[in-house]
Amino acid sequence: MARGMTWYYCGMPRAIWTGAISFGLVTVPVKLYSAVNRKTVRFHQLSGKTGARVAQKRVDPQNDEEVPYENIVKGYELAPDRYVVVEPQELDALQPEKTRAIEIEDFVELDQIDPIFYDHPYYLAPGPGGAKPYRLLLEAMRETGKVAIARVVIRAKEQLVAIRPMGEVLGMATMLFADEILPPDRLEELPAADGAKANKREVEIAKQLVGSLASDFKPDKYRDTYREQVLELIERKAHGEKIAVQPPPEEVRAPAPDLMSALKASLDAVRTQGAEAAGDGAAKASRPKTQARKAARKAAAKKPAAKKAASRAPAKR
Fold first, then answer.
1. How far is 51 from 295, CA to CA, in rounded Å?
2. How does pLDDT run across 141-165, given as a tens digit for each residue?
3. Phi, psi dihedrals of residue 238, rounded to the nearest 5°
4. DSSP alpha helix (H) spans, the chain
5. Closest by alpha carbon to 215, among 282, 137, 274, 128?
6. What pTM was computed for the model?
7. In order of start, what are the domains of the chain with their CATH numbers?
């Protein structure tokens, strides 16, 4: 957190939805809480001349007049400047039934769900009188290793969700529908499978490199350094400090090493750092592995340059 920055305490999280999980004839009263608190830095648009906040208005481009909110209608674009107008009552007739039930349809294995389907995470807490069935469902899912796939209507929109045990609480994540996921084979830049095959030696060294960088996932290890720097910049400017913006240094691109040289240099750099960390104690052991990657890139860039220099050197007589 930036030094001296003021943070506002928002109190305990509030339930944003109440209802019940339904599976078979069992009903589990629950309350829904958001599981995230996004830390994005938000800026307002100001006038560069007066410093006043800029107001956004809805203007009809044909007459440059502001359109009152009550005169705004919804239109779906069929082609440029061609729309189908849909009335609010027509949309209301199509809205899903407003129920308070999370209807479980299937129980599946967790590893069968690709993470690309997950959208927004929530927590489910037991509602009044729901402590026992809540605990029953949590324990049953934990012991069977299953994830519940269900449907629920939140804010007039039907959501596909996945429910799973997360410690002593049930977690729920909204999911994307299958037709919302773009298949990767639609990417134009994908190389042909037969034109980018790695040989056995390259695969073995790559596996060793992966193994040397392997560790346990520790979420607290990763921080949004850009957001922290932005907050620090804001604080410094708020205290009247003048900020000198330095021009970015010119990037000198080294010749790209061949794949095998890059793999070997990367592996050597990681092993060297591991040896240094073991010899120098915990202080050096805690250094981030990005230093090893930088060293690997430098070492890999030097190898082709050394080869070129050797080829240009006159032969000894």
1. 47
2. 999 999 999 999 988 889 999 999 9
3. -65, -25
4. 88-94, 131-144, 200-212, 225-238, 259-280, 282-285, 290-312
5. 274
6. 0.70
7. 17-36+95-180 (2.40.290.10), 189-211+256-302 (no CATH)
